[in-house]
């Protein structure tokens, strides 16, 4: 503390011989300490506010509104809630990229992400992130609703339809089709701003992990969309057939897995 105190205050305190100068010197030390604490708090607040502003600029519109309207420290604290999570990725993505240039791969991914985001957001979903050829979306964030699962299923069907339209366009140009696999799961998630210098607003937890595992299982179950029993139970109308009863990595119990038709 003393190293941060201005020299005049220390000199005044050291040369003081009476009670009044000493009292004034101690008061000066206390005020300086308080000023330093206020300065540190303001600096921390500016950092948090900057992270919030960055999130608001980079996030999806629904998240941007939430970030802009929420206290930065509340964003950091986050919350736990129920949500329906969707994962989708492109089948045989590596093979699709083998005969094209890196620039063409980038253009392909940009087109996929644009079409996927449009389909998901049209059903009221929130695109949480894109990782390579994979997209994660959540339904019920930032605000939960009774039809979150129904909207997630609708988004899965819209996403499949968007890929079908894109495939027809590509086939006319002599390019291979685009097929996707989709996984859906419902359960508790933690939602909040996570990270230190690189902060992202995201949903995490076992529910997210299981949804991703279900998407991966579309490759071995010969189904375009695999969903958990929690999704089937929460949906108001969902024609589903059971495809497996087995443990899923990330889940705490053996799950009954269902396939739903994506064509309407």
In short:
The protein has 264 residues and is of the alpha+beta class. It is built from nine helices and eight strands. The radius of gyration is 27 Å and the shape is globular.
Structure description:
The chain is an alpha+beta fold and 264 residues long. It folds into two domains: 2-55; 81-260, 2-Layer Sandwich (Alpha-Beta Plaits), CATH 3.30.70.1230. 52% of the residues lie in helices and 24% in strands. The protein has helices at 7-15, 19-58, 61-69, 72-77, 93-97, 102-122, 148-172, 206-221, 229-234, and strands at 79-90, 126-131, 134-139, 180-194, 200-204, 225-228, 240-247, 254-260. Strands 1, 2, 3, 4, 5, 6, 7 and 8 form an eight-stranded mixed sheet that branches. The longest helix has 40 residues, at 19-58. It is globular and about 80 Å long. The model is unreliable at 1-5 and 7-17 (pLDDT under 50).
What's the SSE pattern? HHHHEHHEEHEEHEHEE
Structural class assignment: alpha+beta
Unreliable residue runs: 1-5, 7-17
Assigned CATH architecture of the largest domain: 2-Layer Sandwich
β-strand amount: 15-25%
Mean pLDDT rating: 81
Inertia-based shape: globular
Main beta-sheet strand count, sense and barrel state: 8 strands, mixed
Assembly of the depicted chains: single chain
Helical amount among residues, as a percent range? Answer: 40-55%
Query: Over all CA atoms, what is the radius of gyration?
Result: 27 Å
Membrane topology: Multi-pass membrane protein
GO cellular component, one term: plasma membrane
Pfam family, one: Guanylate_cyc
Domain Guanylate cyclase: 84-215
């Amino acid at each position: 503390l003393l190293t941060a105190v201005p020299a005049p205050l220390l000199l005044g305190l050291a040369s003081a011989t009476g009670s009044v100068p000493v009292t004034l010197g101690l008061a000066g030390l206390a005020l300086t300490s308080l000023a330093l604490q206020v300065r540190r708090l303001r600096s921390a607040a500016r950092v948090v506010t900057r992270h919030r502003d960055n999130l608001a600029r980079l996030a999806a519109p629904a998240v941007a509104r939430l970030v802009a309207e929420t206290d930065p420290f509340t964003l950091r604290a986050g919350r736990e809630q129920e949500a329906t999570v969707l994962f989708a990725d492109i089948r045989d993505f590596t093979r699709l990229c083998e005969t094209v240039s890196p620039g063409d791969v980038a253009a392909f991914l940009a087109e996929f992400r644009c079409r996927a985001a449009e389909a998901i957001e049209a059903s009221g979903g929130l695109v949480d992130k894109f990782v390579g050829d994979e997209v994660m979306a959540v339904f019920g964030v930032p605000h939960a609703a009774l039809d979150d699962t129904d909207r997630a299923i609708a988004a899965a069907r819209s996403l499949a339809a968007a890929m079908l339209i894109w495939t027809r366009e590509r086939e006319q140009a002599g390019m291979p089709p685009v097929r996707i696999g989709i996984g859906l799961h419902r359960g508790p998630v933690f939602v909040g701003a996570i990270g230190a210098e690189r902060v992202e607003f995201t949903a995490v937890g076992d529910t997210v992990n299981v949804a991703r595992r279900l998407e991966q299982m579309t490759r071995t179950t010969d189904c375009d969309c695999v969903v958990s029993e929690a999704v089937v139970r929460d949906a108001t109308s969902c024609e589903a057939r059971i495809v497996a009863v087995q443990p899923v990595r990330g889940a705490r119990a053996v799950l009954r897995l269902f396939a739903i038709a994506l064509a309407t």
